[in-house]
Known about the structure:
Blueprint: H1 2-12, H2 17-34, H3 43-55, H4 65-84, H5 111-118, H6 127-139, H7 143-147, E1 154-156, E2 159-163, E3 172-175, H8 181-191, E4 199-200, E5 203-204, H9 207-221, H10 229-242, H11 247-254, H12 259-262, H13 264-278
Antiparallel strand pairs: 1-2, 2-3, 4-5
Helix pairs in contact: 2-4, 5-9, 6-8, 6-10, 10-13
Amino acid sequence: MLKTFEDYLTHVRRSSENTVKAYMKDIKRFFEYLGKSPKQIERADVEHFIKALSKGEITGEVVTESTVSRYISSLRTFFDYLELIGVVEENPMERVRHPRLRKKIPSFLTLEEVKALLSVYDEEKKLKYKAILSLLYFCGLRVSELCNLRVEDVSFYPPYVKVVMGKGNKDRLVPISENIVPLLEKYVEKYKPKIYFFENKGQPLHPSTVFRIVKRAAQKAGIPKHIHPHTLRHTFATHLVMNNVNVKIVQELLGHANLSTTSIYLHVADKEKFDAVKKL
């Protein structure tokens, strides 16, 4: 049953690989904890599990509201599927509510920090690393999108990257800043990638490699913040909003399905305004 549900997520809902992995892990933990079959599950069982999860009894540590919310989404999708194929008549996830999530202002870099980060790697010796950092910031790519970017999806005339099947399986075009076009052309000329724009022996670059590149660059640049690839995506969006780019345009560039997801960057810009006034 779990295998058919995994196929349903992958081929019918077209969920991302990370979403499928997360949902399958959540559901397996749910049934391992309760020790019941799907037909035996009642709403009280779900609430008992969520309470135990919140206390840290499931994972061994207290989890955040966002993690609890993801588990609820995983279970709701699973039981909706079982109801769809006739395995259960009553859905135990009905009236189970998500916890109220506190919106966190995403961490981002200042313009000076971005310049320091991008200047860490020498263009002659570490051209590939410099190109990776540049695309993450100037195009606001997710790490999975960067790793799966194909040679055919990058155009220099006109300059843009085509993000194929991004999060939510939505394609989008993101213009490439003219500031980095010469750098990327130089990279292509030197490395001559065949399938993936950043590849390792014909295979896509692993996300952990990108994490290491970003972390090492931050250390070399003397940036004390905890930085990961997604920080550059946050920075890309924040700098656009701070430069008065319409939030709908930012939404399209980021590939967000809902404008509410993008609106968090408006709060970042407001914070900058308040901080500026405090200096008077």
